[in-house]
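Notebook entry, structure prediction.
Reason for the run: the old model in the group folder had no record of what sequence produced it. Starting over properly, with the input documented here first.
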Amino acid sequence: MRSVTGAGPGCPAAGPAGPADHAGNAGPVTGRARLLTGLAAGGIGHSILIMIAASAVRDSWMYPPIVLPVPGPPWGLQSAGVPVAVVTVALWTAVIAGLGGVIAGLAAVRLGARPSVRGLLVAAALAVAVLTVLPPAGSTDALDYAAYGRILALGHSPYVMTPYHLRLAHNAFARSVPVTWQHFVSVYGPLATLEQFLAAKLGGLSAARIAFWLKLWSSLAFGLVAFAADRLLRHDPARRLRAHLLWTINPLLLWGIVAAGHLDVLAAAAGLLGLLALGEQRGGPGAVRPTAARLVAAGALIGAAADIKANYVLFGLGAAWVLRRSPAALAAAAIAALGVLVPGYAWFGLPAVRALAARRDGLSADSFYHALLVPSLRPHLALIATAGVVAVAALTLRRLPDAIPGRPAVRAALALSVAWLFIWPYQFPWYDTMIICLLVLYPASRLDWLVLARVAAATIPNIPGNPGAPLGPFVGLVHYLSVAIFSPLVLLGAAAGLVVLGLTGNWKLREPGEPPGTAVPGDATPVPPRPATS
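New structure, fully documented this time:
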């Protein structure tokens, strides 16, 4: 990554008193900014290379085993003999280095550094391409998706038949069916099931090839979000770089979404495009009504997102909050959304509807609710968590600064998604895709650090992705402590931090690269000025 000093073409150069002007164009770059840029490049590059290497030798340390097709893709090194404990420690290092690299990059941008966006995008594209053609690693979910798709391809419903039956009746799939969820029906929406069915038709009898098609579509959706953010922020170099650091080149997302092939990014891409389809609304909610075509497109895309993963209905609630003053507009968008949602659930029937509530009482292994709930309250977990989500959502929706000009639906969806993800007891790090795809359009604030801390803290306990894998005494102890103590404490701290930010309004909201001391509307605490550095 190279630093670019000086303002962009046609823009006035920043004076020596501050690192950047209000448009985000770079002024004089300090030695500290250059150092942080180097640390960002090193940390992110180191992290991605480890993730690529771990994915390439996936069959040495992950189960279930998969038979790689000849010819590929996917491609990988089978029987490499790398111990799972070695891979685990290496991936922990990758998470820490990746997190440090992203933080250093964000800090460098705020100090006026302007690394080459083209170089960043090329590096990200190469990383995504390589991870896509390697076997799924870090999670067995892609193979669960493959099993559900194969079930439907055989003429059965994945909302009735479980992957375990493939072990009994389908020799080609028996050894590649993950044990953890083999007795569970699909908990994904009908549109996700259709995607899995298409992958199964394309992949045939090869679980590895079905997983490749699933990963390919997830990678394309990942690139689509990056492209949308890049085009929307192309006139603001600082915000554009921040968006790509949070999303496009973020190793935590590359591991959880691209390497593992989680389908959350499909819903994120559809939901984000749906919110953007409403167009710009100047003058506050309801001041400018979206056209009928935009309302239908927005409703259909958000409906598609919720049809993949039900929690993306929160994007619909965000859009509804903005359209609430126009019943006709709200009705048009709602009808379009239902037009996408209803047919799939009608086709699969009540079993698909029941799947929506399958994990309402679930607790992730690293959830902070394990420590907070006494046994007598455990049966009431869903009610307690729902009350917490509603309270925090109301607070965040009211107090999150309105700092995305013309895009109130993005802000509303961000507020609701943050409240749900920070408070609900059943979460995984790749779920935060829902937040980050919106956060990239929001100005830099303390919310960035809370989200990054959450994703990193939740990623570490989910490594290596094999529940019960023999890690050895020392690595096993560290893994246990990360699940039982470290991650819950960080997740609880992030939730408490969100509440504090909402109550105090001290978001420290500031555009990347703005001169220190610039007050931003909606931020209760302006940043005090400091002497310029050279």
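Summary: The chain has one domain: 37-139+212-504.
The old model has been moved to the deprecated folder.
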